[in-house]
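Section 5.1 Outputs to date
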Amino acid sequence: MKKLTFHIKGMHCNACILLTESELKDIPYISEATASLTERTIQVVGDFENKTVIDIMNELDNVLKPHGYSLSLEKQKTEIKWSDFTYALLFAGLFIGGYILVQKLGIVNVITSSTVNFTTAFLIGVIASVSTCMAVVGGLVLSLSANYAKGGERIRPQLLFHVGRLISFFLLGGVIGALGARFQLGITATFILNIIVAFTLLILGLNLLDIFSWSKKLQPTIPLFFGKKIHGLKSVQHTFMPIVIGAATFFLPCGFTQSMQVYALSVGSFWTGAWIMLTFALGTLPVLLLLSFSSLTVHKKAQSSVFTKTAGIIVIFFGILNLLNALVAAGIIKPILNF
């Protein structure tokens, strides 16, 4: 047994740790894999026989490359492709402009609200569905499909997974909202929670831009222990296991999910919290359905530098918007975005 450490490029959040570790642990000769977000390394232990370090690195790199990661022996100097920002700013500008136009036309009223609402939650879900965070859920979907296909089942496990996921996001979102009401959150507590939501979105956006290495240390997340236990359920075959796994994705270490969970806590209402989390889950559903019932490699195509930077700019926009709205609701500043 040997222990090797490789530098890894393309990590944005704790979901990346879970994804890279689980992918490498599935390789027969790898017994252990430990990734570090701050160091941007991954350490593997296994029986490599007579393979050279270069051969091993290339094999592992081929496994991780489809998910947007690459390995190297030496620490890679971060090279920012500023040219990508030209297209990213254009695409993000069109999205944000369309978003604001929709508000001004009165189709949905989000910009003038003091907090996140269903439209914002849905759009954040759409962005999350093609991020590295949701790639972990996509990995679970594909693993379930492969495991149950061996027994001749393809559609039923996938449907149960998505039903379980939507139900859990609705019910657990409601529970979180009810907890907020139970503790009778005041103006100050609600303001703090909204600031946390804004902070989480801003850090997520910065991590997607991949400009500042320090931002990765600031991202709040639940312990990875929960994510690893949930991901380990994918190999268990039982009639209702897809429902359990779908429901458990509520606890996976995704910053987008956690920002919506914090907001659900701040609303202090079972039904509002439930609908916020369900709307967010519905935003992630189209891409996950594509992964479930087709061979389209959505996540592979979505990992381009331009795409991640576009998503990062949009997420930062939502973070700034929520921050401004929180300050307005607290009476600290006057309304700035008045459409």
